[in-house]
Task: inverse folding
């Protein structure tokens, strides 16, 4: 039997396998990784009948152009993504997110770009023929860990698909990625290292997302955050969502592939319920922070989980 | 032992053991880390020991700050046996090609290159923590004469295997990476090896290290 695979005609900017992440290795310097926008990963898996823990292909800004060979495939794309299906007779169909489509042998899938967002997900019914590494399918390009030798995809590579026995089921939901006014944060462990003016700027002014942002961190530009105690701390552990402020006064938000140890003061931490939202802010967009307390953050997370469950339950 | 436990965001505990950096405090951090690792508490996803802090991250859908704080405060701490820690010997080549900053340090701080190498080799080092990049050990304390500041402008690329010194610490770059430490040599030894799936990081918190000098020829022929 010939194997079903996608041929990568264009790899896109930063296209990798990602799943729900890799636990328990911070103490040897390996970050959590995993899908930046977990809710969209879970929805994409469910829409093609895959397990929650299955990996999807994550792309950023510009996605891949893929040609299917030797098989049919049922796929879905989640996020806010502009994509086309190019049928082998050259007819172009415009695709909608959150709706599954069947690709015929030799059809192409052109994931052109994300709209006003960064990350999107491609899931295939039955999944990709890859092995997990340290209990996860997530690629960490820094330590070269995970499937595809820990690398992002490159042109002319092949992505092999698992054989499937089940028939294809078309599924769709109506879902809109909500835009939010604020990213909510909790005071960091070094909040009092900053001047009263800096604290005020932090919660009242807009910050611009810099082009120098990736899966490791998001750099922000705006009013300088003046440190009145020390611009360095003794190096200590980091977690995703921590906002560090180096000596130049520009905040950096630690994201899923962050270095596991850092020595800059932590002004705040993004709440778990808003992590999926901050990662989707594209370079050039504006962000405003709002301080809340831990209890409120815990309640907002319950709400976030409930919403996610409700969306997933709509898919049958 | 823990001075206080606060929250870092809504999904991590920040256990503070004090502000000083020394072996005694760090051993307490590592002891708690090993104890938590052993009993496997529901919801904990990651534990990061550092000089004098222990950060415990958890999955907010399985537990929360209050519940976990209670559990951590009530853990029966057993002393971790010394046998759990290893002494590891690391070869270093100090050839010109690798010792990127040794000339500058020698002339700015009025200490000969020979003296820098001698001082580095004569001590036994302790691993306070591992991380930043996969497997990078933070070792200390180095001789008082070798305590230099970081580079003012960090290098965009420090080569893999580089041995760096700054303040009271030295480290090993396990991957090519940006970095601001003063580079005085390079090791051919694999300090992080993902193909060793059960134990990829050679040097873990609590381990001790001794360096020894090798020639360029030995460096090139090194085989772990």
Result:
């Amino acid at each position: 039997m010939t194997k079903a695979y996608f041929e990568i005609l264009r790899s896109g900017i930063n296209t990798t396998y990602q799943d729900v992440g890799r636990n328990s290795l911070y103490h040897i310097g390996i970050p959590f990784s995993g899908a930046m926008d977990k809710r969209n990963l879970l929805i994409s898996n469910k829409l093609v009948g895959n397990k929650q823990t299955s990996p999807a292909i994550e792309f950023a800004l510009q996605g891949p152009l893929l040609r299917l060979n030797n098989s049919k495939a049922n796929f879905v794309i989640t996020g806010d993504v502009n994509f086309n299906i190019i049928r082998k007779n050259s007819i172009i169909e415009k695709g909608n997110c959150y709706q599954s489509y069947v690709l015929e042998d030799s059809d192409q899938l052109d994931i052109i770009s994300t709209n006003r967002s960064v990350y999107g997900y491609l899931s295939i019914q039955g999944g990709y023929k890859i092995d997990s590494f340290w209990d996860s399918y997530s690629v960490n390009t820094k330590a070269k860990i995970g499937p595809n030798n820990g690398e992002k995809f490159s042109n002319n590579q092949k992505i092999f698909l698992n054989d499937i026995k089940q028939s294809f089921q078309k599924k769709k939901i109506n879902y809109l990625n909500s835009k939010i006014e604020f990213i909510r944060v909790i005071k960091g462990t070094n909040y009092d290292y900053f001047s009263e003016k800096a604290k005020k700027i932090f919660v009242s002014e807009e910050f611009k997302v810099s082009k120098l942002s990736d899966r490791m961190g998001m750099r922000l530009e705006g009013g300088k955050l003046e440190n009145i105690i020390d611009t360095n701390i003794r190096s200590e552990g980091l977690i995703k969502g921590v906002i560090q402020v180096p000596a130049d006064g520009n905040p950096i938000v630690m994201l899923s592939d962050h270095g596991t140890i850092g020595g800059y003061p932590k002004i705040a931490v993004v709440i778990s319920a808003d992590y999926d939202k901050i990662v989707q802010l594209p370079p050039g967009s504006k962000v405003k922070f709002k301080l809340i307390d831990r209890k409120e953050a815990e309640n907002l997370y319950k709400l976030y989980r409930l919403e996610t469950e409700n969306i997933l339950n709509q898919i049958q | 032992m823990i001075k206080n436990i606060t929250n870092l965001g809504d999904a991590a505990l920040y256990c503070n053991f004090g502000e000083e950096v020394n072996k005694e405090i760090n051993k307490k951090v590592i002891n708690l880390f090993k104890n938590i690792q052993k009993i496997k508490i529901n919801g904990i996803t990651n534990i990061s020991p550092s000089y004098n802090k222990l950060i415990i991250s958890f999955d907010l859908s399985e537990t929360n700050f209050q519940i976990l704080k209670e559990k951590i405060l009530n853990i029966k701490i057993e002393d971790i046996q010394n046998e759990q820690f290893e002494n590891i010997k690391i070869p270093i080549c100090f050839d010109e090609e690798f010792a990127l900053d040794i000339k500058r340090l020698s002339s700015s701080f009025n200490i000969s290159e020979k003296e820098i190498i001698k001082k580095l080799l004569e001590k036994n080092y302790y691993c306070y923590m591992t991380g930043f990049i996969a497997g990078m050990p933070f070792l200390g304390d180095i001789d008082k004469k070798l305590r230099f500041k970081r580079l003012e402008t960090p290098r965009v690329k420090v080569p893999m295997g580089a041995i760096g010194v700054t303040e009271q610490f030295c480290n090993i770059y396990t991957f090519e990476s940006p970095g601001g430490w003063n580079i005085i040599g390079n090791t051919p030894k694999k300090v992080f090896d993902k193909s060793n799936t059960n134990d990829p990081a050679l040097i873990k918190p609590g381990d001790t290290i001794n360096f020894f000098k090798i020639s360029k020829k030995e460096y090139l022929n090194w085989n772990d």
Q: What stands out?
A: Chain A touches chain B at residues 23-30, 32, 133-134, 142-145, 150, 186, 188-189, 234-239, 241-242, 259-262, 266, 269-272, 294, 297-298, 301, 305 (CB under 8 Å). The domain at 183-312 of chain A is CATH 2.40.100.10 (Cyclophilin). The helical segments of chain A are 38-47, 196-204, 275-278, 294-314. DSSP finds four helices and 21 strands in chain A.
